[in-house]
Amino acid sequence: MSRRTACAGTLTVLALVLTGCGAGQAGGEKDDARPSRSAVPEGAPAAFRLDHVGERDGQLTDLAALGPDDLWASGYDQKNGEVTAGYLLRDTGEGWRRLPLPDALADLPYPPRLDATGPGTLWATGAPAEQNGTPVIARWQDGRWSTVTPPPGGSLLDLVAFGPEDVTLLQDPHLPDQDDGAGNITSDDRSQVAHFDGTRWTTTLLPSAAAALDGTSGDDLWAVGHRSKGPGIGGEGQEMTQTAAHHFDGTRWTTVDTPLRRFADPVPPEAGAALGTVFAVAPDEVYAYGRHSFNHGEVEEEPDDEELRLRWDGKRWRDLPEAPGACGTRPPLLLDGDTGTLHENLWYQAADGPCYKVKRPELPTGGEVGKGARQGLALAEVAVVPGTDRIVGVGHIAVMQSGNPFSRPVTVHATR
């Protein structure tokens, strides 16, 4: 399942467009301090509970559930706000145990992202310190780590895998700027997909920029993002970008139309739309999320940003009805099967039910946690454990107090 979003861009609208850059700040926003009093629907999670609390300052950044008794997490220690060491955690049914990173990933500046490719197989990918560096790829299989030669050129944006011989990467190939022949220089922000068949990589350049990748199989993939050319760009509307979706049917990638966006006149400066998250449930049920925004602060009367929520029904992309309350303004962390959707800051939209706040855990008062300290849980990644009714999350709890604020990496779980 696709989980990463683009968090940087030269245009204000892309800088983001995507509210899904991480899981929000620990501690929540003002409306998070007043959770909904709606009753928890039957079958939906009511509360997250602590499973593991790290002994040092730091955060957990990613999660992969290979099976009921094989969970992996990646994270880092920090000191004085600086990352000092990356590491792995693994739970084989007897609690979380800290492990070192494989040698290929040990010297990277940040911990790797993790992706399960079935029982017993884990992919760990990271980026080197140099800008635009080629990704480093390691694979855990048959109880040992090995390295995989990366595809040529391009930093990693997203990854989806359906087995050791069916892995697809989404990359930014960092193409050089283009000259249109009239002296106008424009950036070439097209993205690249690379497929691994167990032996070699095959690369394809998409016609526009993509930020997220997901699919139901290697023959049914979606890459979503934005485009800066074509219908709805420039002209009277002055929209700089429109949303974009590209589909792979096992043979070739094609661009599929998405709804056009345009602010009412007068259109605000540097307006544009982009998608940053995609979840594929079935070939005729795919969800994409993003934002229609602009460069704020340049005009007195500004329109509201538009949260984008699209659904593919097998024939076309359509706008989803507006979700109630906080669930309509926060990107999703997890599509929880037929039960509902978990959104950023632990808001849960039950299927055909209310939007409510899942109760978050706190560290016990005493010792480092002073009386009256404020605490906030931020989840970086959430997954349903295969074959169970458990939802597992990783992230950190920030303790905000005078004299000794700190952050502890945590794993949590909720039961459906």
From TrEMBL:
Residues 1-26 form the signal peptide. Keywords: Signal. It comes from the Bacteria. This is Exo-alpha-sialidase.
